[in-house]
Amino acid sequence: MKIIVSIKQVPDTSGKVAVNPDGTLNRASMQTITNPDDMNALEAALKLKDETGCKVIVVTMGPPPAAGMLREALAMGADEAVLVSAREFGGSDTYATSQILAAAVNRIGVESDDIVMCGRQAIDGDTAQVGPQMAEKLHLPQITYAAEITKDGNTVTVKRMLEDGYMTIKTQTPCLITCIKELNEPRYMSVGGVFEAYSKPLSTFGYEDLKDDPLIDATTIGLKGSPTNIFKSFTPPQKGAGMMLEGNDKATCEKLAGILAAKHII
């Protein structure tokens, strides 16, 4: 059994977001982090590894510097890593990205008891589309918004978070699961894990490695193969300081009501 975890290097959105003239993010000019939801997916895979002894493979699509993020995943306990990187893949939207990542998963191979895991969504796009699109292209059953995961043989039981409660779903492997932050608390890298990370396999899949997959076509990858058109990207303005009212007496309540009425909120 193995678990393939798709992770993504994203801009640290706590700082200024730089945008290229074509509307894409200028990732080279920004600090990067591992997408938070993807860390929860990786932790879920590592917990299953602790329980079953399965293999965990992390895969990402990005420029060569993303290899550093993969080494961090290896230091946390993953067994192998794959960097999917080529100029032909640059500028891909969610549709094109899912094509490429699905082709990479096909090359790794999915067997009867395997699981593919992703984070719910990436903080740079917030679309929550890549995981489900990968599942469709890999012809795998999918369960999204996983808040609890258990595995018994070839059966996976997932407690799925909804807006107004939870739903419990069972499915057979292989399958794809997207994970939310409520699922777990990601572990830290250990000192020993950092040393071991540099002796673990880290492969690179380029365009030549994936071009024979039916999913890879010049019309469906990269900027030219992306049907999404970005009208405008920008950093939203900072919110101003709020107004604080102290006290729990009638006068304070009347003052608050007066402020809300003046702003036509009530």
Can you give a write-up of this model?
With 266 residues, the chain is of the alpha/beta class. The chain contains seven helices and eleven strands. It has helices spanning 36-52, 67-76, 94-108, 130-138, 191-197, 207-210, 250-262, and strands spanning 2-6, 9-11, 32-34, 55-61, 80-84, 115-119, 142-152, 155-162, 165-172, 175-179, 202-205. The strands form two sheets. A nine-stranded mixed sheet has the order 9-8-7-10-6-1-4-5-11, sandwiched between helices. A two-stranded antiparallel sheet has the order 2-3. The protein is globular. The model has no long low-confidence stretch (mean pLDDT 90).
Secondary structure elements and their pairing?
Elements: E1 2-6, E2 9-11, E3 32-34, H1 36-52, E4 55-61, H2 67-76, E5 80-84, H3 94-108, E6 115-119, H4 130-138, E7 142-152, E8 155-162, E9 165-172, E10 175-179, H5 191-197, E11 202-205, H6 207-210, H7 250-262
Parallel strand pairs: 1-4, 1-6, 4-5, 5-11, 6-10, 7-10
Antiparallel strand pairs: 2-3, 7-8, 8-9
